[in-house]
């Protein structure tokens, strides 16, 4: 990116995960311009336009069919939180139960339902949220392995005197993005999926930030071999940074009546066009996940080197694919690192409950030179912050 004076910046923030394919990808831009040139429908509500047809076909052909997945697709509105709200509402309607289980440090959006399943109190802004019927459960490693996963929860469920209402659904990020790049182990995710199955609880994976290849495979949950009942997608599904959200639901869960859940901008056809083209460009072969894995190794080794060079800062390195975090013991150091990186021309953001994590999410399409350059800037910024 360049500022108005022509000063260059490397963007390792990538629209908080909305730009997995980079800024202004030429092929996506071409598809968008061609659509606008031929006066394609821009706002289509529920019209079955050619743009929507092509996106649904691309999703089936390049994403769902190769993975043996069968989901219906709902267009809940333009943003991630719209997908989460629709998922929560659907789970409650399907099961006839009200309670939703969420996870410590999870983040799901800024509207009331999604905020009520968000862990970070700062994000809830002292506004009397969470709502009733949302219960946090410890995310992987939250209890430092001292309590066997989910045992306590199963006891609560089995005990009619526990006071726990049987939940409609569990909502989880497989890697918590805003929570500070907290990575759930595949075996933990499998246990969670089995728990949900045993107790007839719907499993919602919020892949708004970690989907579309951010962790390597298209869906972040593929690493665990699980099949969620409902999946929320947004951010990079639009391909070009245009607003778009999707809810994927097992076909038998589709109990919606027409008009029961919608949003005016659910028919954002220009975003359908770039979304379809992005799926076609990047998901017809296995090149992107392999490249992401290779680049992820480069990031991991640079971050590990930073952490061992500055043992006094007590830095933890966490990540998967191309979502990485440097978790500092002191949030002030993380803030200094992010500011110092900006001054040197690298955009990164902080994450974590107290902003203690410097978070790196470069575009999956980043070149090796740019990746190396950004990591060098980061290395210098940490060295400066350490003094
Ligand atoms: N879920 C997750 C996992 C997210 O990271 C975000 C955004 N950071 C959201 C939901 C909400 O998306 P939006 O801001 O587009 O509403």
TrEMBL record:
Write one Gene Ontology MF term. Answer: pyridoxal phosphate binding
Q: InterPro entries annotated for this entry? A: Aminotrans_3, Aminotrans_3_PPA_site, Dat, Ectoine_EctB, PyrdxlP-dep_Trfase, PyrdxlP-dep_Trfase_major, PyrdxlP-dep_Trfase_small
Tell me, what is an example of a GO biological process annotation in this record?
ectoine biosynthetic process
Which EC numbers characterise this protein's activity in its record? 2.6.1.76
Q: Which cofactor is essential here?
A: pyridoxal 5'-phosphate
Under the heading PROSITE patterns, the entry gives: AA_TRANSFER_CLASS_3
Q: Which segments cross the bilayer?
A: none
**A Pfam family matched by this chain, by name?**
Aminotran_3
**Pathway(s) per entry:** Amine and polyamine biosynthesis; ectoine biosynthesis; L-ectoine from L-aspartate 4-semialdehyde: step 1/3
UniProt keyword list: Aminotransferase, Pyridoxal phosphate, Transferase
**Similarity comment text for this entry:** Belongs to the class-III pyridoxal-phosphate-dependent aminotransferase family.
Q: Which NCBIfam families match?
A: dat, ectoine_ectB, PRK09264.1
PANTHER family reported for this sequence: DIAMINOBUTYRATE--2-OXOGLUTARATE AMINOTRANSFERASE, DIAMINOBUTYRATE--2-OXOGLUTARATE TRANSAMINASE
What is this protein's record name? Answer: Diaminobutyrate--2-oxoglutarate transaminase
- Species the sequence originates in: Actinocatenispora sera
* Gene from which this protein is expressed: ectB
